[in-house]
């Protein structure tokens, strides 16, 4: 897979590459944060159509996420975030998205730095560049995709333009999954109070109960297969529901650093991630999952907590991620970049009366982790 990084100029213009004058391109575009099943459906369709028409498959990947750029500008007098500012709401790093896009068989990815000047270009201007420079024959979009100035380039407007010009075709993919869900507006992470994987609060609710819940929480309708829904689920400890949408365990990555080593003193040494963690960190709690280092993958009980320290990079309080590998061997991972994958929520963070009670609970956490991460579970 060929990867090209593109940065718009001050006027928002991009110097698009030329692939082959004798070969057309099938294109899609977006942030693809999380690379969930909806994203996968769109990109698989791009690859399928490219094979059918002997064309290039092209994904235009926006980085940073448009929502992050516009949100930052709204809070900072129209200024854009720089590369030092971390998007703590991003589900996955760009590198993780690129790995998963490559696994789907895409020919070219154009990573475009998303700027306010680039966002101000009309969708008509943008599509003109894609047809003229990339040789786009087909644009593939999800059902509620929208791009260009003020997000005016929705499916209906793009379809009308395609029909009027005859220069390219629009292919719309059903990326909604099992329908819509209700998500509280401006939700905040909330640690579950009970032990075990949290359930959907609306799972067995009547229509009247759903309406009351939606009104109380100012909930809005959102397609189930969406990055926002995955973020909401992870922010409430609902790992298994999030993983079902992602089609794979949610994961974060970071470098293992020396911690306070309190776990070692009670027989539970942990691998602690440093401050620059890639990927969305679920709400505080203890989780079952895996620790991955290269080709090695160990079951792990994972603890997440929040420090009172404020991080200028993320604009949030610092988070602590510690993983206890369930293995008979001592593993020295200091300085390694590792991957932490989540399989399920075990319990909230609680204060124990003493070290004996803590050790007993940690032993239970290990046994539950073994059960959840067993193949076939």
Automatic annotation (TrEMBL):
Pathway: Cofactor biosynthesis; FAD biosynthesis; FAD from FMN: step 1/1. CDD domains: FAD_synthetase_N. InterPro entries: FAD_synthase, Riboflavin_kinase, Riboflavin_kinase_bac/euk, Riboflavin_kinase_dom_sf, Rossmann-like_a/b/a_fold. Residues 245-374 form the Riboflavin kinase domain. Gene3D superfamilies: HUPs, Riboflavin kinase-like. Pfam families: FAD_syn, Flavokinase. PANTHER family: RIBOFLAVIN KINASE (PTHR22749:SF6), RIBOFLAVIN KINASE/FMN ADENYLYLTRANSFERASE (PTHR22749). This is Bifunctional riboflavin kinase/FMN adenylyltransferase. It comes from Bifidobacterium callitrichidarum. The lineage of its organism: Bacteria, Bacillati, Actinomycetota, Actinomycetes, Bifidobacteriales.
